Amino acid sequence: QVQLVESGGGLVQAGGSLRLSCAASGIIFRLNAMGWYRQGPGKQRELVGTITSGGYTNYADSVKGRFTISRDNAKNTVYLQMNSLKPEDTAVYYCNARRDLGVVSDYWGQGTQVTVSS
User: Fold this and answer.
1) pLDDT on residue 75
2) Percent of the chain at pLDDT above 70?
3) Are 55 and 29 in contact (CB under 8 A)?
4) Number of CB atoms found within 10 A of residue 118's CB
5) If you write DSSP's letter for every residue of the chain in order, what string do you get?
6) What are the residues facing 47 on neighbouring strands?
7) Positions in the chain whose pLDDT score sits under 50
8) Alpha-carbon gap, residue 46 to 90, rounded angstroms
9) Given this model, what pLDDT does residue 54 score?
10) What is the pLDDT of residue 94?
11) Cα(69)–Cα(105) distance, integer angstroms
């Protein structure tokens, strides 16, 4: 129903920046929120940040003040600006979209690798 494609991952030095993008296509109406999750080596998948269609944002404590999530509803695209990157930010980053029509449906991208070297 919904296809999500992430881009922008790569290798960066500690203290550097990356900007991830996620474009949604398919049946994209009434997507209530989009966001980013990540899964590091040997770790559980965890929330990075979310943004609603109205622009309200939520962030994990570990990234507050360093990461910023934004969206362009006209382009059906969500962005994750990552600044002051740390080695512990190394993970596969996954885009998420949520549709709530009484029953919640979640859609996921394939992931993009972010590696932060020290």
Assistant:
1) 87
2) 100
3) no
4) 9
5) -EEEEEE--EEEETT--EEEEEEEEES-TT--EEEEEEE-TT---EEEEEEETT--EEE-TTTTTTEEEEEEGGGTEEEEEE-S--GGG-EEEEEEEEEESSSEEEEE---EEEEEE-
6) 37
7) none
8) 13
9) 86
10) 98
11) 21
* Residue 58: both structure tokens together: 């939520």
- The per-residue pLDDT for range 20-38, each reduced to its tens digit, is 999 999 988 888 899 999 9
From first CA to last CA, the distance across the chain in angstroms is: 40
What separation in angstroms does the CA of 44 have from each of 24, 54, 58, 94? 24, 29, 19, 13
Report the distance separating Cα 65 and Cα 47, nearest Å. Answer: 15
Is beta strand 10-13 parallel, antiparallel or unpaired with respect to 112-117? parallel
